[in-house]
Amino acid sequence: MRINIILPTSKLAGAEKRFVFMFMSLIKKEHDIYLFITKELYEEALKSTEFEGIIGFKNNIILTPFKSGFISRFIFINYFLKTYPNAINHFVLWFPLRVFYGKVKTLFTFPSNEFEKFFPYYKRILIIYFFIKAQKVDFLDSNVYHHIQKKLKSIKQKFSLTPNSCVNTDFFYYDNDFSKNNNVVFLGRFDDQKQSARYLDQIPDIQNYLIKKSIVVNKYYLIGFGEKYLEMKKTLEEPRFKNLPVEILQTTNPELILRNAKVFLSLQKFNNYPSRALMEAMAS
Q1: E-assigned strand segments in the chain
Q2: pLDDT tens, 132-162?
């Protein structure tokens, strides 16, 4: 049976890596699986050493207009459902209402950060409607999974839990040729949940404390992207950061920096532990 994974985002972060890796692994096992992604995400994957082999599966990759606006998405989803009426459709981080206008086999992956973002507000009823209509809902966070099971006992048989993530140890591995330096690495989305901006704000105080303890940090790396990116770049321009070894950057190959660092910071308020970023660091 044909399986479609629909991933509407444009940046290659932890969740995206998880499903691109899943797609590549399943297709190697000769499953009839297709990946619907944005052009931006595909180009990000090609830049990554870990996923550059994705070009070998280009016949199973469909570039989508998810970032082109509501009308383009609506036209696409109508075409999509008419073209693949019998497929299993795995929607990640996206809940298209049009899916429910017919008998379509659907699976939603529901990450904890999306739950916390939407559930307390007016979208609560809409999300519950998604749960009722979908054939399967997969949760990444065990707390969210157990909470929803208690709230929606009548449909709990639809719910599954796939905690944690996966990492390709062909690319994330400990290398004796790399000497670990006193580098500190933060890797993740720049948002409130990951506490990236809060951490950056504290680095001058952390540095002063470590100097008093005669501990030298060669560099503080903050690797990622997100809604706090511009705010963090502006913070870095403040006088208190002058001469501090702090760098904010984006890279598709974080393993090269992780492999050379002694300290990794995992600061998210909640998530599916171990997160993808934490696993990458542990493997390095």
Answers
A1: 3-7, 33-38, 61-64, 88-92, 105-110, 136-139, 159-161, 181-187, 219-223, 246-249, 261-265
A2: 777 788 877 777 788 788 888 888 888 888 7
